[in-house]
Amino acid sequence: MIRLRWKSAAYGASNVESNSNCLSFQRIKRSTMNPVRFIAITLIGLFCYIEAVHCQTQAVWGYECVNDRCVKKAISESSFPPEKAISLPACRLFCGNGAGLLWPQPSGELQVGNELAHIDPDQVWFEWDEKFHDLVNLWETNKERFRKQLKTRAQDNALKSGGKAVRIKINVAHDSLTLNYKTDESYKLTIGSGTNGELLATIVANTFFGARHGLETLSQFVLYDNIRNELQMVTTANVSDAPAFPHRGLALDTSRNFIDLLSLRRTIDGMAMVKLNVFHWHITDSQSFPLVITSRPSLHSYGAYSSRDVYTAEDVQQLVQYALERGIRVIPELDAPAHVGEGWEKLGVTACFNYQPWENYCVEPPCGQLDPTQDALYNILEDVYREMNLMFNRSDVFHMGGDEVSIRCWNATTRIQNWMNEQEWGLQEADFMKLWNYFQTEALNRLDKTLPEGDKRPIIMWTSKLTESPYLEQYLNKDRYIIQVWTTGNDSKVSNLLEKGYRLIMSNYDALYLDCGFAGWVTDGSNWCAPYIGWQKVYNNDLMAIGGPYAQQILGGEAALWTEQSDSHTLDNRLWPRLSAHAERLWSNPRSSWQMAESRMLLHRERLIEEGIAANSIQPKWCLQNEGNCPIGGDGGRS
Prior knowledge:
Strand content: 15-25%
Oligomer: single chain
Helix content: 25-40%
Mean pLDDT: 91
Largest sheet: 8 strands, mixed
Number of helices: 21
Structural class: alpha/beta
Distance between the termini: 13 Å
Low-confidence stretches: 1-32, 48-54, 634-638
Strand order of the largest sheet: 3-10-6-7-5-4-9-8
Shape: elongated
Number of strands: 20
């Protein structure tokens, strides 16, 4: 147990003062007071009552650390005086291994001192090397974001005045803004005493991305003490940290239901809080085409749900920049040759669009696939690729989809059958796989034409019939293709891909599909991948165990939200805090189970709420305030 030692410098007058602006009406005698003054004082009192931020009541509960657990106790002058009581966040920080406020927990060295200092959020100063001109604006943005986080931590309370100033020095070795699988995202954070009574936090990293992660960790070392009504920060700490996996992401579908830009930015803010670094944007599908392609305007004109439900090039570029500032790269996906329909059908290059009964041709309505036999298709794709590459100019990876291609769809299209007969092909599975490869080869050639010369960037594709043997070895070069797995984690297809030398991104639906477990929308009962997946199962999704001897070929993972039953209004609740559990698995790769993280998760969920992210509740708040009493047997642990 870390011993607490409270300094007068940290707390000043440690007893909680009552708010003198909130008058007790019991002491006011109207007969001795001017009526105007009485009315004025009455209005002040009413204002205090309505605006709790100006009329805070004295805390009656505090916490103490007992056997590495925070125990709630009533504050009492005789048995538990205010100067000995600490807030719940302070107790969680110190009672254990020092990671009680951190999410994800650091993967390396963590040393936290036993003192807190009262800090002034208006006296937070930043220093960085001005010679890296490309980084200056990024640090300005992160400076303002950090200051806003501190103000948010105060929970709209009027803080006690005073406190120490905080100086943050950021030392970055290189000015590269390339975020890929080789980028060093490690950092070292040191907190100690500075000059003139300041607290000094020093962040050292090789890249902007690592330093930004260090700043995120620093923000989590700041807490609000409701007993003393002040912001506090640890006075000494050393953190050495780095991610276990280079690909830590979210795949979000914005086609089934449109997701507005405000919600996308809020999602990226949450991702930055937990050090996720990939936003995989599944931007189109058969239901809608919301991306504005100026050279092919009919795609969005006919494909979007409305003229308002679109993303312009400017929208995309601004979101890409917003993500970069938060240490996240945006990977675009144009899913093909299946999962196309609205918008595409006006161009005459689709097959089986909206065929009925739909279940004979696809997995959900409306059906639709591209027709690989149409030469005009590849000119259209080249135009789309060119404009997408300009929009998503920070990504050196392109996702080409390749999900759920239906042979029955192509085989139900007369002109495709005729074309295959002209090639002297049959109409069996192997022949349609050859057709699919024809499409994939031509589409990739057109994508490459839109890239700088020599740029053979990695291509991501979903697991499918094409990623199974023998087609895998025939058609997909393991040096160019990365396979994103959506089958179960123990599927033999996963081990086959690894044994063949392919790099994988795991999105196994049995742990990482966040749309599972809701009511069926094309059938009775629950949807296809029920039951609901709780944060615990997400947390325990051990990619190292899935990879076994080939674990180094697993680049990381993405939790996925398909939005047939979600939109901007339900987005936060579907993602959070399950996405946080995913983030810690990929950053820290913990060797312990979710039970050891539960107390941190409950506190982290409160922080998400403070930041305006409507994260789902996972337990009664009583469990947060009474640690260890809710798990079966009362033996809940923590890390």
